[in-house]
Amino acid sequence: MIVRDRPHGLALFFAMRGSVLPSILPALAVNVLFAGIVTVLHGEFLDHKIQVTTVPFSLIGLALAIFLGFRNSAAYDRYWEGRKLWGEMVHASRSWARGVMCYPTNHGEASAGPGRRSMVMTVAAMVHALRHQLRGTDARADLVRCLGDEAASQVVRRRNMPAALLQQAGQGLGAWLHSGQLDPQLAATMENRLAELTACAAGCERIASTPIPFAYTLLLHRTAYIYCFLLPFGLVDTLHGLTPLVVGLVAYTFFGLDALGDEIEDPFGTKLNHLPLDALCVTIETSLREALGEENLPAPPQAERYVLT
Amino acid sequence: MIVRDRPHGLALFFAMRGSVLPSILPALAVNVLFAGIVTVLHGEFLDHKIQVTTVPFSLIGLALAIFLGFRNSAAYDRYWEGRKLWGEMVHASRSWARGVMCYPTNHGEASAGPGRRSMVMTVAAMVHALRHQLRGTDARADLVRCLGDEAASQVVRRRNMPAALLQQAGQGLGAWLHSGQLDPQLAATMENRLAELTACAAGCERIASTPIPFAYTLLLHRTAYIYCFLLPFGLVDTLHGLTPLVVGLVAYTFFGLDALGDEIEDPFGTKLNHLPLDALCVTIETSLREALGEENLPAPPQAERYVLT
Amino acid sequence: MIVRDRPHGLALFFAMRGSVLPSILPALAVNVLFAGIVTVLHGEFLDHKIQVTTVPFSLIGLALAIFLGFRNSAAYDRYWEGRKLWGEMVHASRSWARGVMCYPTNHGEASAGPGRRSMVMTVAAMVHALRHQLRGTDARADLVRCLGDEAASQVVRRRNMPAALLQQAGQGLGAWLHSGQLDPQLAATMENRLAELTACAAGCERIASTPIPFAYTLLLHRTAYIYCFLLPFGLVDTLHGLTPLVVGLVAYTFFGLDALGDEIEDPFGTKLNHLPLDALCVTIETSLREALGEENLPAPPQAERYVLT
Amino acid sequence: MIVRDRPHGLALFFAMRGSVLPSILPALAVNVLFAGIVTVLHGEFLDHKIQVTTVPFSLIGLALAIFLGFRNSAAYDRYWEGRKLWGEMVHASRSWARGVMCYPTNHGEASAGPGRRSMVMTVAAMVHALRHQLRGTDARADLVRCLGDEAASQVVRRRNMPAALLQQAGQGLGAWLHSGQLDPQLAATMENRLAELTACAAGCERIASTPIPFAYTLLLHRTAYIYCFLLPFGLVDTLHGLTPLVVGLVAYTFFGLDALGDEIEDPFGTKLNHLPLDALCVTIETSLREALGEENLPAPPQAERYVLT
Amino acid sequence: MIVRDRPHGLALFFAMRGSVLPSILPALAVNVLFAGIVTVLHGEFLDHKIQVTTVPFSLIGLALAIFLGFRNSAAYDRYWEGRKLWGEMVHASRSWARGVMCYPTNHGEASAGPGRRSMVMTVAAMVHALRHQLRGTDARADLVRCLGDEAASQVVRRRNMPAALLQQAGQGLGAWLHSGQLDPQLAATMENRLAELTACAAGCERIASTPIPFAYTLLLHRTAYIYCFLLPFGLVDTLHGLTPLVVGLVAYTFFGLDALGDEIEDPFGTKLNHLPLDALCVTIETSLREALGEENLPAPPQAERYVLT
Lengths: 309, 309, 309, 309, 309
Hints:
The structure is a homopentamer.
Chain A: H1 21-40, E1 44-45, E2 48-49, H2 55-102, H3 116-135, H4 140-147, H5 149-156, H6 161-178, H7 184-209, H8 214-239, H9 243-265, H10 277-291
Antiparallel strand pairs in A: 1-2
Helix pairs in contact in A: 1-8, 1-9, 2-3, 2-7, 2-8, 2-9, 2-10, 3-4, 3-6, 3-10, 4-5, 6-7, 8-9
């Protein structure tokens, strides 16, 4: 995620980090070059003048506007829903920690079921495991830090690690419940926190595994490309030498919107405009460690060259 | 569901799988042919010149834009709500499994009520039954795999199989509760999971049985067709020979959007852009089997030629 | 509700059932006739040429587009919210039935409180009562079928029958609770189902009693009418004899959208595009009877000439 | 709230009650008069011809369309959320009444805690108190009717009357709980109803105290006014004598949309298009009295000259 | 937050407080000046006439409209979600206070766990702490007033003060639970209030830490600036001397919308259109003090020169 204030004045036009410009540059260059050729030939190919009035552009533009507006909203909704799910994990894990620290009775803690620290860190490990699952990276190091070597080894063999860790937390809860350390009512409340975390994990899987229907993407790309490559024929007779410039501007906004939708539609990756899952995991782990009363908390995540990963 | 990266460059124009092009090809061909005839005749029929300016197109285009935008959103919302409901079934079933594995006491399990495995697999069977109900296919094979032959035979005779299976799970819960194996508070929490699954099933039925009001579909189809078939008369005088091409492009986007809405409006079918219910059911069953501690889990569902069913 | 596949080809233009055409025909006919008169007179009244350029149409069209788009969405949201509320009644009533069948202990059932069948059928009666209240029809026959003659007579004297029936179900729950047949925790869970049904009933009342603010409807109707009746003056000089046709097309889409909003804004009536409350009630009653173990279930509701009431 | 069917034909143009016309008449008259002066002078002031093409209108019109559409939706969302909150109060109060009537045991009712009637009427009083708070009117008469003279006197001295009444209901609940008349589980369920009512009251306060950001309103008003007062210069050369008429029509729709947003943005007042809080309070009180078994219920609220207050 | 009625007539154009005009004045001035230069030079630079028709403006305008509409909605949604979260804190804290005052038994209050006043004021302190965290100000004074000097000192050393205070409240709840003063069921209900407050705090953090993706902001700014600086070339040939005026009007609306989005996107600051967190905290603290039975309540917050902070 890019974290910076809005650049002002001319700096606005030279900000590259976080811009979609790099990813659309090839298509944009081809398009402008094509517009240049059309301008030089005055729209004539093989002695045949290809003349398109502006009428088709407003007609196709109508459909294009519907597409771009729709896809834009759909992609951003996915981005924001992804962020909301991680925000829910922030508070569900904090409420879980509060429950672990406040509601079981103290006596007998050593004798039955897991310790409080272990219960809290299991949830911290679950959050890391979900992040690694979404990004296809290796969760082992984070799991070892949270759970210790042995427990981590058992977890990494499971196919769905977040679910396995939540089940482990549930087993701890069951042990506390059966030994009488935790009132059934409060156990049920805490099970609801685990259910919320389960729901967040399933929600993230849903967003990651279900793209916007491919036919939309295809129809939108096709319409945008045809539109922008026809454009020089429609403009060359009135704009003459300015045609490539104007075509470039129009294509920049349309290709840019399109590419931006592609980028934020799947918000859990590691591109510049994706969600900062690393930072969110650090935040959650820090909160949980603070709830446990630890003193040496990790440093808050810092953006590096405007980017938080 | 189509699962593939966005094709680049010219490949973009030749991707057919998942495109709506095949389903609109007949109407599109007729429209372009008609535009060709109008072009050849210069808009004259029986020595009478039919001349339409572009004014009506921007007027009707206004209404058409409202329609297409509205229906597009409504159809996609249904698609995404369907996906969310299946996502909820993913987490409700996982939380159910966690409850079954963690909260009943062990003693006496053999003596009263069903075993844990049977309780978990009843929910797996329910998910398969719902899929078969939505797609109108035969649930028997999946039910036998999950429940055994005898139990499956009883279920298939019920009219609403998912509801019957959830009631069966509820009866198991009641047996555990009455025999004292499960605390009433935790039983209530687990009943809430069953209620969530009931809600998901009812939500899917709702989407499957209630289309977007027919009058909308009708008004939209009619407006789009009239618009595209009038178009050649409005363009022929300024575009001459390019008329069929431009009419084809405009009709492609309008008919395409329309057909896409038709396709994803009812997302539980087996068309290319529909939801991959088979894969989702395998995912759920695998999760539940892993929660039970099974080792030989089914392979994760794989897309075949970009398609996940 | 109209239940049919999309008609293809020319059949599309002759489908009348479910179309809004009948309800807008008078206004449409007057408008086209008026356009015909303007065409014949070439826009001259009393030797005075009334000439309107297309400029005002794009200006007013802007406001009209905002109106139509807004009202369209608002009306459809009401329709879909109405459908969702009935979908919630489907699952809340099924979960209620599961609760009644699974969680009270068997012993002493005859001695204290109502029987299970009576508890389930009270909710079936409530659903019918709500439908009759929303449509202003007589609930007596349905109540007698569900509750018996005597109990039905008591209910019909109440002003708010659904609330009275839910209170009756609550009293049964209280009786089970006080006699120790039902655990307080499960009783609370089942009371939550009654609260959901109460919420659905109140939601339906809300939609039925609160129209979209009248000033919107008024402003929209007025703008649409003025727009369509001014249109011939703006078109006659460029379209000549085609003016009535084009005016008719534009008016068809605008009046049609407007009339459709009027129709689905209040979705609980008995018009063709309204929700099929009769069928939904049969579905709910059938589900409940199946949960009770009854064998002779009512036939599933069938559309008659494409219409489900 | 205006409650009437849509007027047809010419009656549509003479319906004044509920129309925004009266509130925009001054600005509209000034605008039309100004357009008349511009028409008479042919756009010339001090021998200088002020000529504006239609280009700026489509450019500013773009921004105006975004504004009007956005503000329209935001204002209607506030209106509808306000209605939803009151709908939630309808069902939360009914579920509260069901709880009071069904779940406490009868024995000892006289000896500990408040009577059932007092518990139910406290919530009726809370609803009235919220309405009076939102409208800035005097709650005393309604409180006396619901609670009696003495209790009402104590309540009116509190700053936040609805919160005080809900706390009073909570104290009754606590008394029933501590005396063993009500199971803790059911007490918790009923406390959740009180929490819902607290949430509704806070939601209404939120809408009443937080307008749409003032800068939006300002920017929208300014743009709409500049647009409509520049319009005559853009139209006078092509429309001549029809200029004031067309300016009046455009201004009517733009000023009307704007004024309508102003009106329904704060939906708890007593203007014609505001929510009928009086009627809703009568509905709630009637429901609660019927739940108590009272026979002489108040008459249902009736619209007077199409208006429900 | 600006709290004032809509100014009428000419006053509308001179209202500056709350307007975005001051923040866009520099860019606006440069743009108008540039338009003036273009006008004087008749669009000729170095004897070369730069002529742009209006075609590109409608094409780019299309993308700009999508952008502005999208970003406007996204920014306002963030604003309104922020307000909703604070509204939830209002009612969750009131329900917490009701729980503290009504449901624990009185006996033994002095002997075990914190007093009621301390439990209520801990939540008041949490609300202040969240506000100071969001605005980066010093929470000490408010914490001392709510908690006393000593307790405040302990809290301010914690990194996440709101979470620490909620954990403290949870510990009080645990003490009441373990000493038998509070029924477990009611304790669970009250823990749910703490979970709601945790969720609100996490929601506010989410909005504050996650801006709208930077690439959107960048693309929008760039498009709007290019659009407005090209505009004089498109207008100078038809509008002549009026060009700077019209460019100024168009730029005012586009830059204004853009700047307004920037401002309300992050609604927890102290700018004029931000949320009045100070006033909300006073409202919450007053509610809680009134629930405790205090008589000398703070004065309700008053707007100063139309501004509530």
